[in-house]
Amino acid sequence: MSDETHPKRSEATASGVVSQHIVGFIGPPGWDDPSPDEFARLTGVSAIGMTLDLGEFDWSLDRIATTEPTLVEAAVTLAGRGACVIGIVGTPFGWAGLAPRESPRDRSDRIASECGVPVVSAVAGMLGWLDDLGVSAVALAAPYYDAEWCDRWAKFVADAGYGVTSCVSMADVGIAEPLSAADETHWAPTPEQIERTVIGALCAGDADAVMMSGAGARTLGCLDRLRAATGRPVVTSDLGLYRAVCQELGIADDVGIWHDSPEHL
Fold it and tell me: What CATH number does the domain containing 167 carry?
């Protein structure tokens, strides 16, 4: 793991929450994860981050499926540095490689048992948000996923008990070429690209809500825009993780982004 772990605190926060807690975020390899800074600004809770060091990493789902031991190491380190809750950033790090009938919560609980503090993953937060909304049918937006990732992600969500009406990427809606690992622009879609992908997913299959995966697709600044464009609740990887962390801290009700209107609780 990278040893560049920095405490972060925001002087001005969106929620007005005052807390002495420290939250730890485990970020994917090779990425400057904005989660600690964003979470501190949103909640007023201090946050620290650690980037997974996985050596030569090919970003295949099969490789991600082998990373649980490294996630444990990172969680133990963050807990040792004062984190009282740990969030795993990056949707597939919570579900790739799970055994049949296992849930993302099972993986988080295993990691928590090793580090001694609660652990939540982005995907567990996303699914928990769907459950709180009472969603049964969901359209999947996956801005930079390739066809294999879309297929396996859609199968996972369906196997978890949700009706999947579509799974759509930027390439599917004609606003980007299929993903190339060498093209970093794919990993940071703009709000406009995110909106078009989310709308495309709903157009491809009407649903109770849209769920968007991909931690590189940042939605803290455009969630209201996505809700207005679709007329549906929109559940996203980054905010699903933040929401789950806030629930563990007991401050979710204090963060207004989750409940600006009753249907988005």
Answer: 3.40.50.1860
Distance CA 125, CA 244 (A): 5
Distance CA 227, CA 232 (A): 6
Q: At what angle do helices 223-230 and 191-204 cross, to 10 degrees?
A: 30
Structural tokens at position 31: 């990425």
CA 127 to CA 173: how far, in whole Å?
25
- At residue 215's C-alpha, the angle toward residues 1 and 44, to 5°, is 80
**Averages of pLDDT over each 10 residues, the chain, 265 residues:** 42 46 94 94 95 90 96 98 97 95 95 98 96 95 93 96 96 73 66 93 94 93 92 95 96 74 41
Q: Which domain, by its residues, includes 174? A: 126-236
Is residue 14 domain-resident?
no
Sign of CA dihedral 73, 77, 83, 89: negative
